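ok trying again, last paste got cut off:
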Amino acid sequence: MVWTDPVSQDIDALRGLSDFHEVPILAVHAPCLLITQRVWSSDPWTKLQRARAAAEKLGASTVVVHPPFRWQRQYARDFVSGIWRMAEETDVRFAVENMYPWRYRDREMLAYAPDWDVTKDDYRHFTVDLSHTATARTDTLAMVGRMGERLGHVHLADGRGSAKDEHLVPGRGDQPCAELLRGLRGSGFDGHVVVEVNTRRAMSAAEREADLAEALAFARHHLAQPGTVPAPAAAPGAREGDPAEAPARAGRVARVRRPGRGRGGRAGGAA
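nice, full thing came through this time. structure:
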């Protein structure tokens, strides 16, 4: 994930870390968060161009991107067609990630455009994040079914339907993490499964490492089990000829956020 840590923005430093730890970088998450609005430019298209260039230089197959914030009006208007245009210029996949409504008490704000539910629009590839499905209180397997064969990337985490995006260790919330992983195994899915859990509550480096190890073991165990995929369903507006069937090939990812700094945060792991 490219964010405020200078190392995450430095391609040469990332390549050096990848070589040193012998862990390939298989995906680049573009700087789409509120706190990264000025990372790699304030222009959102420039951010995506730099993310694609980083992926190409690092040998990553995927750029993960969030839908625009609603106040990014011009970017939001051009987003669907712009992502298609960029996807057609490279072999790197632009996998658009599902988000969620923002909630405060009994109020709900639709912060993303065209929509937080990315299956309502036509994209070549999707990322599904199971913490985000929990926060959105949506049917995860139904969403994966709508993504179909265009599911290109999985952020494995868990949640309990809180208004907060929790990113729990899989198995500690109410999301169908095991069912999804088992269904991916025989579906022909050729993307990556990435553990994306929040370790801020860990009281020590050892506890943080144990949480990550538990998440990784969960992913490996269930990816090895047989299962079935959700029934295929075409996304609204899908282009003619696009496949629509639910999808993991396990992959290893370099962890950019170093757990020894402070009390930690969200971290990636190898599946």
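cool. The longest strand covers residues 192-198. The domain at 6-269 is CATH 3.20.20.150 (TIM Barrel).
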